[in-house]
Amino acid sequence: MSFFSQLFDRLKKPAPSAIGTRQAPNEASAAVDAVEPIGNVESANLALLEAGAACLDRHWQAVGQCEQDVLGFAISPSFMGGPHWPSTRQAYRIVRRDNGIILATEGLSDPFDGVEGDDLGNGFEMELFVETPDIPDHAQGTPGDVYPFADSWTFELLRCVAGTVADAGGYRSRLERYGVLSLELPGVSQSRAMSEQLPAHFVSADDCVGVLIGGPAADFPTRLEDMPLSPVTLVPVVLITASELEYLRNDGAQAREDLVARLSAAGLGHVSYLQRASVI
User: Fold this and answer.
1) Which residues span the domain enclosing 66?
2) Structural domain tally of the chain?
3) Residue 18 in domain
């Protein structure tokens, strides 16, 4: 079974639980703390994690209306064979804007669990996000209710991309080198929400969807210089059509740059619109 098939197989399992209050920064360490006091390293790491989470919260609050609750997991996926993020915290934030909704990872920039010292920085030094106005009503809920988002194509796509980034140890160096990256996710038919909610022209003949990672640029600041250990970048993930994916398959880096320019020129930017026509 391919890596992406395994990812989509995980998505067919029960949806993650929406946390009723702001998710605890580190559920695993909290369980240990109930038995014995945490050590100096764990205490310091927890303080850094909380400081980073607070910084992210301040930033997203300036972008839109943030839900207090996040989509999280009763048990960290890293304990169940899933991708390893820097800490056991794997969560997804919802930010409501006037003309769309942002789903963003929360945890890819956490300090690494069990690592002493600040030389490694804030985890992978990045968080991913998708912005779209096109989430079905049943999968977005009313303000204050985040659980329905677990049934959205946006969550399933972002979760798969985040798993790929985490398994690669982050994409910071690749993004610095290439500017914008592309990724294709095979096996769309195995993903319930994506197969049901994405229009046919976003799915290739060989059952893949494609995304751009890192562009076009967002219409809000994406560089957080005041994170506790090192700067963190908020990286857009943009859904592309099947014909645009085929264009990238044939022409690589030059095609990525051209596609970013076309999306920007068409006024689409970093937002994933399901009803748009292809720009290729």
Assistant:
1) 3-265
2) 1
3) yes
Three-class SS of 103-143? EEEECCCCCCCCCCCCCCCCCCCEEEEEEECCCCHHHCCCC
Per-residue pLDDT tens over the stretch 60-112:
999 999 999 999 877 767 666 678 899 888 999 999 999 999 999 999 999 98
Q: What is the pLDDT of residues 247-278, one digit of tens each?
A: 999 988 999 999 999 999 999 999 999 999 99
Question: Global pTM?
Answer: 0.85
Structure tokens that stand for 129 in this block: 């996000």
